[in-house]
C-alpha cells in the first residue's frame, strides 16, 4: 500500500479533490471516488480502450494513468460530452445503432469527440486511425464508423426517441446505491412521439440513451456503497489436489478481512450446470481442481484489505496431478468425472438413409479434416455484480444472459428455495453465450448470505478469461458425395469437441452439431456424430452457434472441393442443393413453407458475379497479391433442440393509465428491449412510446427464458405478440367494439375509437389486481417441436433462420497476410422487426466470424489477456453489405425468424474458401494465421 | 508501507535511486499491465515530475530524446527523414491512447523482444544515456538491451535520454511491422531500414534491423555491407541472401511460427529497404 495523498484536478470542467494513493489508476478514482461510472474497465491493461478519457485534450487509457499524473490537469470523460441534451455525436451513435451492449460506447465517444475537434469531416481512414485503440465485440464497428462520419449532420428530427427515453439511472454524478428495482426497469416516457414505431421500422434502440450517455449501469456500475469486496482464490494448475493451511490465522493476520469460505461452507449442493442432468461443476472445488482458474476459496473483507491481498500468499498447498489438454490426451486420460468413461461427456448422432452406400455410389466425393481452436467470448465487460440480503431473500444483481437459470442454480448451491433468490440483471456488456453460465453468482451469494452484508465483485480480465467458458475446439472429419448432375448424395461427419473440465453446454454442442452439419442443403443420406471430450482445459460452453460454426467450416470447404471436381460454379452448386420447402432435413423434418436458403443464395447471385469478375480482372496482372472470392451458407434452428423452451410475457394497463410490459428477455446488446416491444405494440395496436418496460427482475417479471439459441425475437417475441393480442381483445370485448377499433391512452384514460364512435374508459374506476393492473394479459409460448429419436429424427426446432455470405479478399502470398475487401451477407429473417438492429446483428456476427477465421486462438495459460488474445479491431472489418431477405415463417411472430447466431456461421468458411480461391491452398486449422496460411501455400506449392 | 516518490529534479531522483530498489514509473503503459491486480509491493519512483526529461531536442551532436518523451511527441517532432522509420514505429505502438503516454525510453527499458522502438533506433545507431548519483555513461543501444526483459541499467541508474548521433541522420528510412490485426497489435516480426544514397544513386550506407526474431532486435551487418554500392532501386533485392538472416533465431509462439518468422523477416526487410529508397513495390503494407 502506498500512502494516500490529496490531489486536485478538474473533471468535465468541475474541480475535484481526492485523497488517493498517487499510483492509483485514474480509472479507479473516477469510478470509485468520483462516481463517474461511464469510464468502463475492460482489461486494466490498455488493451481495450473502454476507459478512454482525454487528459488536457489528449486521449489516454485511464487504467494506465497514475492519478498523480492527472493532478492539475483537465480530464474529460463521457459524462462531459452531454449536458441536458445529447451531443450531435451521441445522437448519431443512437441513430446509426453504433451502440449495442454499450460497454465500449463511452470509450468510442471520447475518442471520436477528440477526432471531431480537429477534423469535423473525417473520412473512413481517419476514423479508423482515431478509434483503433478501442475494442468493440458487438457491432462489427461499421455503424460506429458511420456514426462518427455522420456526426456533423443535424438530424435530431430523425431520431424519434432522442432525449425522451428515460435511463436506468439519473445522469451525471451517479449515486452509488440506488433502489435495485429501478436498475432492472426500463422506463420509457409516455411522450415518445407519434413516429411510426411498428414492426419493420428501424427505430433506435429504446434503451440507447443511457448507453450513449455512459449512464447505463453494467455489472460493476451499481455496487452498494457499503459492500464488502471479495477475492477468489483459483487453481494455478491444470489438475491438482489441494489442502488448506491455517485459514483462521490468515484472516486474523490480514486486518480488514472478515471471513473466507471454502467448499465446506456451501450449504446446498455444491454442483451447478446449465443442463441439470449434467450438472457437475462445484462452485468451490472440493479437494482437487480440474482446471486452471477453478475457484477453491473466496476471501471477503473491506475493500482496501482485499485490494492488498496477493493470492500467492493464501494458505493452500498444491499437489500437481497429470493433466490432459488436447482431445487426444483427454481420450486416453483417466476420467475427470467417474461416470464418464473415456472422458466422453456426451455424444449426439443423426442418421438418415445409408450414407456409406450413397458415398460409395457417388460420382465424386470430397474428404477432409479440420481443426478449430478455443475461442474466447471477449465481451468487453468482465463478469461483475453484487449480492445482498433483503429480509430473508438473497438478491443478486449482476450481468447475465439467463436470470431465471441463475436463480435456480444459485438457490440449489446455496440450499435456498428458489423464491428466496432474486436475480436483478444489470445491463450486460456483451455475452455471446458465456454469461448463460453461473460465474460469480453463487460465490458472492454465499458471502452475502453468510455475512448479511452486501458483497460486490468484478472479475479481472484474466480471471474472466481463465475461469469462464470458451467455444469448443473441434477436430472434425467428413466426406460428402455428389452425383454427376451435382446433386448431393450423402455425407458422413464425425467430430470431437474439447469440452474442457465440466459439461456446461457441451451436451448442446454434441446435439446441435450433427443436426446442422449438413448445412442448409438437401442431404438424403447422412450419418453424423459429435462427441464432447473432457480435458483439463477451460470449460467449453455456449458461444454463438453451439459448435455449428465449426461444423460449417468442415462442410462448406468440402462443398467448394466438390464444385471444383464437378466443374460447377460454387454458388450454383449450393443453389442446386439448397433445401426447399417440402424436402426433409437430415432430421426428417419437412417444412411446407419458410425455407429461405435458396432466396438468400439467389439474392447473392449478382454480387457473386460481380465479385468473381473483379477478382479475375485483378488477378490477370502479375504480382504476389492474389484476390479470392468465397461463399458459404448457414442454417440454424431457433430455441432449444427438441425440448421445451417457453417464454412468458406479462402485459397490463394500470389504474393510473400506464401500459406496462414486463419484458424478461435479457438484452445483452442484441436488441430485445426494442424488438419485443415493437412486436407487442403491433399486436396491441398502440405505439411503442405508450409502453413502460420492466426488465427481467425475477421477482416481478415472468420467465422469458435465456438469451440464447437465437430465440428471443421468435419465442419471446411470439409471447409478446400473443399478450398484445389478448390484451387488445380483452379491452375490445370490455368496450364492446369491433376488431377494427383503435386504442389509445390519453391522460390516464383509455380512449377507444371505432369508426365515428369514441368511448373513454376511466381506468381509476376499475378494480385493480395485486400488480395494479385493470386489464392484463400473461401469455406463454413454447415452440412446437418433436424430440429427436435415437437416430436424431424428429422436429428439433419449429423455426429456422437461413443465410449466406460472400467474402472478397486479397492475399499477400509472400507474407500470407490478408486484406478483407468486402463481405456481402444475405440473411433470411422471415420478417425484419427492426431492420437497423438486424443489420447490427449481421455486422457484429461477421466480425466475430472474422476473428474466429483469422486471429482468435485462446491458448490456455498463455493468452489470458486482450493483447495476446486478439479480436478484430476497427481496422479489421471491411465494408459489409447486408441484404435482409424476408421469407415469412408460419410460426414466428409476424413471420420473424431468429438471426443472432446465424450471422457468424458462414463467415469463417467463406473466408477459408476465398483464401483457397486466391491461393489454391486450403488452411485446415483455424485461425488461419499468417503462419498457417504461408504453410498451406508452401505445402500446396511443393505438392503441385 | 511501500514508498512513493515523485521528485522534481533529476538529481533528486538519482539521490533516491542511490538508496533502495525502486520501480520506475514513467508512461505507465508497461507498469500497470505488469502490476495487474496485485498489490504494489515495490517502492515506486514516479519520474513524471521531471520536466527536464520531457523533450526532444536537436543539437549539433544529433537529436536527444529525453526519457519522458512520448511516442506522440516523437511523431509530432520536426525531424529529418532518417527518423521516418521511428515515427512509423511510433504510430504502431499500441494505440493513440498508448502513444500519448508511453515513452520511447520506456520501450527500451521494458526490453521486450517485440519492442517496436528498438529496430528503428538500432538503425539510427542510438545511444542510451544512463545517469546515477555517481556517474553518467552512454551505451550503444545494442549494449543496453541485453536480452528478453533484461537491460544494462543498474538499479541506481536512470535512463535519462536516448541520443541519435548526427552521423546517423543523413539517410532515408522505413519501418515495416507485421501483425495479425490492424491496430493494437504486438509484432510477429518487424524491420527497420535506414539507407544513405549518394548522388549517383548508389547506396552509400545502410543500416537494417529486425525485431521479434531474436531476444534482442538485431542489426543485419552482413546485409548492410553487401548493400553498399548497389543501386538504390528494386534491384537491391537481388542482394538479399539467406546468410544475411542467419543470425535470426525466431521462436514458435502464439503470434507465429519460427519458420514463418524466418520467411517473413526476409520479405519485410526487402520491403523496408525498397520503401526507404523510394521504390515501394506492390503490397508494401504488411498487415
Can you describe what's shown?
The complex is a heterodimer of chains A (944) and B (287). Helices cover 28% and strands 23% of the residues of chain A. Chain A has 944 residues and is α+β, with helices and mostly antiparallel strands. Among the domains of chain A are: 5-80, Roll (Ubiquitin-like (UB roll)), CATH 3.10.20; 505-524 and 542-640 and 789-943, Aldehyde oxidase/xanthine dehydrogenase, molybdopterin binding domain (Aldehyde Oxidoreductase, domain 4), CATH 3.30.365; 647-781, Aldehyde Oxidoreductase, domain 4 (2-Layer Sandwich), CATH 3.30.365. Chain A has a 7-stranded mixed β-sheet with strand order 9-11-7-19-16-17-18, with helices on both faces. Chain A has a 5-stranded mixed β-sheet with strand order 2-1-5-3-4, with helices on both faces. A 5-stranded mixed β-sheet of chain A has the order 6-27-26-25-31. Chain A is globular and about 75 Å long. Chain B is built from 10 helices and 14 strands. Chain B has 287 residues and is α+β, with helices and mostly antiparallel strands. In chain B, the strands form 4 sheets. In chain B, strands 4-5-10-6-7 form a 5-stranded antiparallel β-sheet. A 4-stranded antiparallel β-sheet of chain B has the order 11-12-13-14. Chains A and B meet through strand 4, helix 5 and helix 24 of A and helix 2, helix 5 and helix 10 of B.
Compact description:
The complex is a heterodimer of chains A (944) and B (287). Chain A has 944 residues and is of the alpha+beta class.
